[in-house]
């Protein structure tokens, strides 16, 4: 089955593209949790330095894309001339294929996350009646370019960050997590890199 897509372009100059991307991904997440849809997310203007001012949603299910494009938030932002939404179009045959991977291991490299994990380990040790003795293990990890997108969780009211990296791939796969991305293990979904 052929894939289709639509794009949302953020119109305000100098807007926080990561914040807007997070809100769009949050809408997709709620949409996919209510329906059994399989929709991937692409960023047509992704560079190593910038996420770009566009987000694209890709799927084999054109009806699901149409329903997603009609979500209240998207329609309101388009009505207020803050978003420009494209029509649903077929994915170009010659578009390079990439995986946009939600890489949760990247978050573990930051001090705030390390502190949170240490506090959790301490609580667990104390609950078992053990003394907590932190271990420091130096880590030489090479990190490729990635982008961070803040997400507001509606289920538990905790905000968190999606760490995303992009990798080229030669195969088309349509399995995404509930945020529309591939993951390091379970989901191998790919999306076209829709450069215009």
Based on the structure given, which CATH architecture of the domain at 4-102 and 164-192 is correct?
2-Layer Sandwich
Radius of gyration (Å): 19 Å
Number of helices: 5
Main CATH class of the domain at 4-102 and 164-192: Alpha Beta
Parts with pLDDT < 50 across at least 5 consecutive residues: none
Largest sheet: 5 strands, antiparallel
Which shape, going by the Cα principal axes? globular
Helix percentage range: 25-40%
Pfam family, one: Cas_Csy4
GO molecular function: endonuclease activity
Protein name: CRISPR-associated protein Csy4
InterPro entries: CRISPR-assoc_prot_Csy4 (IPR013396), CRISPR-Cas6/Csy4_sf (IPR042564)
Architecture overview:
- This is CRISPR-associated protein Csy4.
- GO terms for molecular function: endonuclease activity.
- Pfam families: Cas_Csy4.
- The model has no long low-confidence stretch (mean pLDDT 85).
- The chain has a domain of 128 residues: Alpha-Beta Plaits, CATH 3.30.70.2540.
- It is of the alpha+beta class and 196 residues long.
- 28% of the residues lie in helices and 24% in strands.
- Strands 1, 2, 3, 4 and 5 form a five-stranded antiparallel β-sheet that branches. Strands 6, 7, 8, 9 and 10 form a five-stranded mixed β-sheet that branches.
- It is globular, with a radius of gyration of 19 Å.
């Amino acid at each position: 089955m052929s894939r289709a897509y639509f794009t949302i372009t953020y119109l305000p100059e100098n807007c926080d593209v990561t914040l807007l991307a997070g809100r769009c991904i949050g809408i997709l997440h709620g949409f996919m949790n209510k329906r059994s849809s399989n929709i991937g997310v692409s960023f047509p203007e992704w560079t190593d330095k910038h996420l770009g001012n566009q987000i694209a949603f890709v799927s084999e299910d054109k009806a699901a894309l149409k329903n997603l494009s009609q979500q209240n938030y998207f329609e309101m932002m388009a009505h207020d001339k803050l978003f420009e939404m494209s029509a649903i179009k077929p994915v170009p045959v010659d578009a390079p294929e990439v995986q946009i991977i939600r890489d949760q291991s990247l978050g573990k490299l930051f001090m705030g996350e390390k502190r949170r994990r240490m506090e959790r380990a301490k609580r667990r040790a104390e609950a078992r009646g053990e003394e907590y003795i932190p271990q420091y293990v130096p880590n030489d990890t090479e990190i490729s370019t990635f982008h961070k997108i803040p997400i507001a969780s509606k289920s538990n009211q905790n905000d968190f960050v999606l760490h995303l990296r992009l990798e080229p791939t030669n195969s088309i796969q349509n399995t995404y997590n509930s945020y529309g991305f591939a993951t390091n293990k379970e989901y191998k979904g790919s999306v076209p890199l829709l450069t215009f």
